[in-house]
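User: Quick one: structure for sequence A, then sequence B.

Assistant: Sequence A:
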Amino acid sequence: MRAAVLTGPGQIRISEVARPEPGQGQVRLRLEGCGVCASNLTPWAGPEWMQYPTEPGSLGHEAWGVVDAVGEGVEGLSVGDRVAALSYKSYAEYDLAEVTSVVRLPDALAGQPFPGEPLGCAMNIFRRSGIEAGQTVAIIGIGFLGAILTKLATDAGARVIAISRRPFSLDLARRMGAAETIPMEDHHAIIEQVKALTGGTFCDRVIEAVGKQWPLDLAGELTRERGKLIVAGYHQDGPRQVNMWLWNWRGIDVINAHERDPAVYMQGVREAVDAIASGRLDPGFLYTHTYPLDRLGEALDATRDRPDGFLKALVTYG
């Protein structure tokens, strides 16, 4: 099979390697594609701790495809089933997954890409946020995740204030149901706008979905007394400082909405399958850029640079 190997910072080689064989409780997937995650960008940049070359397929974890072999003890899945999986070497034409980390895709999703891990993440973050009808919710950062959360919160009856840097993202937020949009330009101006929009009380829920220091600072300022600040951004490029004086004074709850339990991950993926198959959620137009495996480097660069109109990249295997 063909698999991507990172050979150094910003360098990829496509190698021919042996197909993996499924072990006890595993299935092998003939992959149709894999989403490109922002968490890939730190290894792509080449931090001091990164070791090269990587194992074939490494970093890819947003896969979907068809079961093509099953290991001993596997029940409930058969060769030919189309599935989404939480697997970890999916920048390749085949990958292995534990049977507990695979969700069958219904016929209603036939032919549709399904990067299960980020879709499941969105569902889990939404559940952890405790968003209800009548609440005012600020979402800072309207990328793939922020756009889906805008839709979920709006459908739940919340009033969403979307805050993002790019005009494209603000247009998208309105399409997903945001009641108000604010350009992410001036820190104090944003605070004053949200204060005016909320009658001085600020927001019941604030979701930070950028993963940088400034949006985290802003999130605290926009959270009302006894509100909830939900950290959905991926903060892996260094330590953060927080305004504990403000957080303490307002008595806010801070929720780190990153899951690490595979069972919880899969619960979110199953919820995403149900939402998309039923028509309640349509993420198809959020997959803005598609690349073949041998252009994975371009997909990673686009994920980093976010050219106009970019939201989410998929790598597909023909």
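Sequence B:
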Amino acid sequence: MIYITQLIYIHPGMEKTFEEFESVALPLIDKYNGKLLLRVRPEGGSMVGGELDLPYEIHLVSFEGEEDFERFKADPSRAQFLHLKDKSVRRMMLVKGIAL
């Protein structure tokens, strides 16, 4: 089992475009032995400390294995909407890990 954490930073005013991409991408996770464990939109007062900017969203996703994650990323229907992600996302940090 692998865990993927994403910190997602979007361009101002591109929330609707990002949501359009997510409406296609997120339902595909289950198709590839994955689970959306957490999807959070932190608010300004929720930051206690740190050096990073507050992201628009934080996702925590699990997949049975690395191969499942790679297949999810290569899904043809997801690929058709990547232009929406590219247009709306300013920066993204992806962290892969395992549960201890």
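Residues 9 and 91 are 5 Å apart (CA to CA). The mean pLDDT is 95.

User: Thanks, that's what I needed.
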